[in-house]
């Protein structure tokens, strides 16, 4: 029986690897060099657009069963006011099936002048754990190309910091 059990476990793990989006196998949460507190949680979130049933605050509420959903179209964004300046070292984006194929993570001290700390044109959705370095009070995900015909949707937008700036 142990041989059958091991074979079954191997089959399940193999099948999961086949259906899991690229990048989804990365562990969610901060790298060892980062802090362990999600500094976005409890912040204030605004977005370029939203579905009335799925506001941007859902992406930072710590509940993996609520989400932010944008309207359709390119150049959708969600901005988090972290309430203080942080030295960001890791961002975790937990995408619904409506993900951004191309997006930037940007930071700002004032919420109007932005600089890019990460950019990709090959986003695959799922859980994306991103090492990124930047300092500021505001962080945003700027989606520039959708991965589906729908808008964008995030279950969670987590931000981890080394130390307060």
UniProtKB/TrEMBL annotation:
Keyword match Signal: yes
Keywords, ordered alphabetically: Signal
Signal in keyword set: yes
InterPro entries named among the record's database cross-references: FA58C, Galactose-bd-like_sf
Gene3D superfamilies registered for this protein in UniProt: Galactose-binding domain-like
Coiled coil: none
Domain F5/8 type C: from-to ranges: 27-162
Transmembrane annotation, as ranges: none
Family matches, as PROSITE patterns: FA58C_3 (PS50022)
Taxonomy, superkingdom: Bacteria
Matches recorded under Pfam families: F5_F8_type_C (PF00754)
Signal peptide location: 1-27
Protein name (Swiss-Prot/TrEMBL): F5/8 type C domain-containing protein
